[in-house]
Amino acid sequence: MSDDLIIDLSNYKDRMGSRIEPGHYRVQVEDAEAGVSAQKKTPQVQVWFRVLGTEFDGQTVVDRLYLTDASMFRMVGFMQAVGLPTPRKKLKVNVRQFVGKILEIDVEDGDPYNGRVRSEVRGYSRALGAGAAAGAASGDEFEGLDEFTAPTAEPETTADVTDLPAEPEPQRQAAPAQTAPAASVEDGTIEIDNASAVAEDGSVDLENLSL
Prior knowledge:
Layout lengths: L22 E14 L6 E9 L8 E7 L5 H10 L9 E4 L7 E8 L9 E8 L34 E3 L19 E4 L2 E4 L19
C-alpha cells in the first residue's frame, strides 16, 4: 500500500482567519458569502479580508456580519466603508459586489476558541490615499439615491444596489413583542428590511439602535 495521500484543498476556506497584532489595517475583500449562522440560523454575511502591507501582508481576517436589528449597525458601517449607499429603506444587495473593495479595519484579539486566538474586526472606515480607487464606488451606479455622496475615485468593479418596492403599512394592533431576523438571504443576495439605525444622510443613528 502506498504512503501517498491525496488532499484536495481546492475549495478550502479558512473560517477563522489569522491572528495579527491589534491595530488599524488596510485590507481588500477577498471573498464574501451570504448564509446563516450554524447554531442560531441567523442571516449573516461572512467576509474574508486580505491584509495589504505591513508585516502581516497577505494574512486573512474573517468577519461575520449578522443581519439582525441589534447588529445592523455593523453591516451599515461596512457598506459605507466600501462606498455603498445606505438609505433608510429596503435594499437588495448581491454580496459578490463586495469582492475586490479596499477599505480599512480596526482589529483586536478575540476570545480563544479551541485554544486558538484570532483577530476580530471592531470597526470599518473608508480607505484614503493611494490604492483606494479599487475600493471606491461611482455615483453613476446609484443614480437617484440622494442619500449617497459619491467619492471622486473611479471604480474597477461595479455595484448593484436595488431599491425594493415599499410594502403597504399594516394596520396597527396589539401583539406580543417578538424578535425576528432583520434580513433574508437568498441566491447570494441579502435583503435588508430594517435599517432603522441608518440616518437619512447615511450615518449610523445610535439612538435608534436596539442593542
